[in-house]
Amino acid sequence: MISETMENAVNEQINKEMYSAYLYLSMSSYFESINLKGFANWMYVQYQEEVEHAMKFYEHLKNRGGKLKLFAINEPPSEWKSPLDVFQATLKHEQFITKSINELVDIAESEKDRAAYNMLQWFIDEQVEEEANDEEIIAQLEMVEESRNGLLMLDRELAKRGAAAD
Ligand code: OFO
After folding, report:
1. From the CA of 116, how far away is ligand 1's center (Å)?
2. How far is CA 61 from CA 3, 9, 54, 56, 104, in A?
3. Site to substitute for ligand 1 among 10, 13, 14, 17, most atoms within 8 A of C-beta
4. How far is the CA of 105 from the centre of ligand 1 (A)?
5. pLDDT reported for residue 99
6. Does residue 165 belong to any structural domain of this protein?
7. Which of 66, 81, 154, 163 would disulfide-bridge 2, Cβ 3.0–4.6 Å?
């Protein structure tokens, strides 16, 4: 049985994951609007992954006898200055999510909740990967700077990201 503290924290995390999904769907649509279809694809896959993250937390809650509480999802921004601006915002958001996952780990440790601790290990690894992906794309965008050709090459690269093969 999950504790009330952990149940509340997991419910709040589900809201954060759903906000992440909203944010990345909005970013995907922004890229569509500036005709960068590969970037739009990358962000759409990211949106799908965030819904899966929320569902992983929900499964955990369900399996441990917890109750789901869905909170209102904040409205994400819909405009950015450039692709670089989008990925800088993405990295900042993922750093916030990493902090939030670490706080869940702190609760699991203080409550000796080994089941939650185990489940959270997957998210710790996932956050390392997500921040690294964002940092890599930021570095590439900084290299490309104002070059339309470079941007289109990167767009072709990001078009290859598939739902199963992140
Ligand atoms: Fe982007 O990893 Fe979940 O939120």
Report:
1. 17
2. 10, 11, 11, 9, 13
3. 17
4. 15
5. 98
6. no
7. 66
Pocket lining for ligand 1, CB < 6 angstroms: 17, 20, 50, 53, 94, 97, 126, 130
d(CA 22, CA 74) in angstroms, rounded, equals 9
Query: Taking the model in full, what pTM does it have?
Result: 0.95
Domain that holds residue 140: 4-159
Taking CA atoms only, the protein residue closest to ligand 1 atom 4 is 17
Atom of ligand 1 minimally distant from the CA of 50: 3
CA distance 139 to 151: 12
Residue 145: the pLDDT is 82
In a 10 Å sphere around its CB, with 0-12 CB exposed, 13-18 middle and 19+ buried, how is residue 91 labelled? middle
CA of 125 to the centre of ligand 1 (A): 11
Q: The CATH number of the domain where 32 resides is what? A: 1.20.1260.10
Q: Please state, in angstroms and rounded to a whole number, the distance separating the CA atoms of residues 78 and 43.
A: 13
Q: Give residue 166's pLDDT.
A: 43
Distance 147 CA to ligand 1 centre (A): 30
What's the structural domain count of the chain? Answer: 1
Alpha-carbon distance of 88 to 5, in angstroms, equals 33
